[in-house]
């Protein structure tokens, strides 16, 4: 994490976080991609070059640590950020995504009796994702580490009872084989931020600005809930994030509805959980099956990318720099 402060007063006026991940593409290429997260500049110090300085500084850190590309995300309607990234920092658009939000407080209907949602164990989840992630155009290599994080509540599969699902067997205690797969099913995992977002700060505290800059999700969520971001300091706020969504088959609509209802009910049992969120790329087959109810809100998101290394492969440039990719894995650790 890098911070910007005024030399005279030591006032904190900006912050940015960065991390480096190993990612895989459909062509089996392995890439080291730096992710820029949570870029925030104090409202009183915007348009003064603070944001540009923070971005270039974190890019230099990424390059020193072996990153070949950098990527970042911003809301589609955030013209100031888009101009900074594309005009001044020379990023290009990588992917368009949609963030879906549904409040926990909204009454959820019962899950259809024709549908079953079954939790799978860790070995089964890792095995399934090893196969299903290959449908993504960009995904992390450490999916097993994500699934084993304390904030990950588990992995489930939603399917129709009359079709069954699949019969998993353990072979040599390492490899999992599938004997029978139904025509329609969806795998999903749930990430719990209710503990991570419980910190409450009062306006008089000197680190209030730093805390708000680190809470990337709050800036997006609260306007959709008709609440100001400052309201979040009055009481704890948490949300459940659906990640690793992958569906196969033709009848996915009811299964997606069951997943939202299941997750909403789970959120009702968690203290301070107030919303369910997921983010899907415009080319993800499931994006058209998200329930379009009056209580569902949407935010358009854009991912940008930039080549940092002069030694990048031409095939990788073709994927990341010269065209839009539509089906990507959204890492819950970044949200």
Automatic annotation (TrEMBL):
Pfam families, A to Z: Acetyltransf_1 (PF00583)
Protein name per Swiss-Prot or TrEMBL: N-acetyltransferase domain-containing protein
GO MF: acyltransferase activity, transferring groups other than amino-acyl groups
Signal peptide span: none
Highest rank taxon of the organism: Eukaryota
N-acetyltransferase domain boundaries: 1-171
């Amino acid at each position: 994490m890098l911070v910007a402060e005024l030399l005279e007063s030591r006032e904190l006026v900006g912050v940015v976080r960065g991390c480096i991940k190993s990612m895989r593409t459909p062509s089996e290429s392995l890439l080291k991609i730096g992710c820029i997260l949570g870029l925030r500049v104090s409202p009183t110090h915007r348009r003064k070059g603070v944001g540009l300085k923070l971005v270039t500084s974190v890019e230099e850190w990424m390059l020193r640590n072996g990153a070949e590309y950098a990527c970042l995300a911003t809301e589609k309607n955030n013209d100031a950020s888009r101009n900074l990234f594309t005009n001044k920092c020379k990023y290009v658009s990588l992917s368009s995504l949609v963030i879906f939000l549904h409040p926990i407080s909204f009454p959820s209907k019962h899950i259809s009796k024709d549908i079953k949602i079954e939790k799978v164990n860790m070995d089964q989840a890792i095995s399934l994702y090893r196969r299903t992630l290959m449908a993504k155009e960009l995904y992390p290599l450490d999916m097993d580490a994500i699934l084993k994080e304390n904030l990950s509540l588990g992995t489930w599969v939603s399917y129709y009872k009359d079709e069954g699902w699949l019969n998993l067997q353990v072979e040599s205690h390492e490899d999992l084989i599938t004997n029978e797969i139904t025509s329609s099913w969806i795998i999903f995992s749930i990430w719990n931020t209710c503990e991570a977002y419980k910190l409450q700060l009062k306006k008089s505290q000197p680190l209030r600005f730093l805390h708000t800059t680190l809470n990337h999700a709050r800036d997006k969520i609260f306007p959709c809930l008709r609440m100001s971001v400052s309201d979040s300091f009055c009481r704890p706020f948490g949300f459940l994030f659906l990640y690793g969504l992958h569906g196969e088959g033709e009848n996915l609509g009811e299964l997606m509805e069951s997943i939202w209802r299941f997750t909403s009910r789970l959120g009702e049992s968690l203290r301070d959980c107030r919303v369910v969120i997921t983010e899907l790329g415009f080319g993800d087959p499931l994006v058209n099956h998200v329930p379009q109810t009056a209580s569902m809100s949407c935010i358009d998101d854009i991912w940008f990318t930039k080549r940092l290394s002069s030694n990048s492969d031409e095939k990788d440039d073709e994927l990341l720099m010269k065209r839009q990719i539509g089906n990507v894995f959204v890492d819950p650790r970044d949200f």
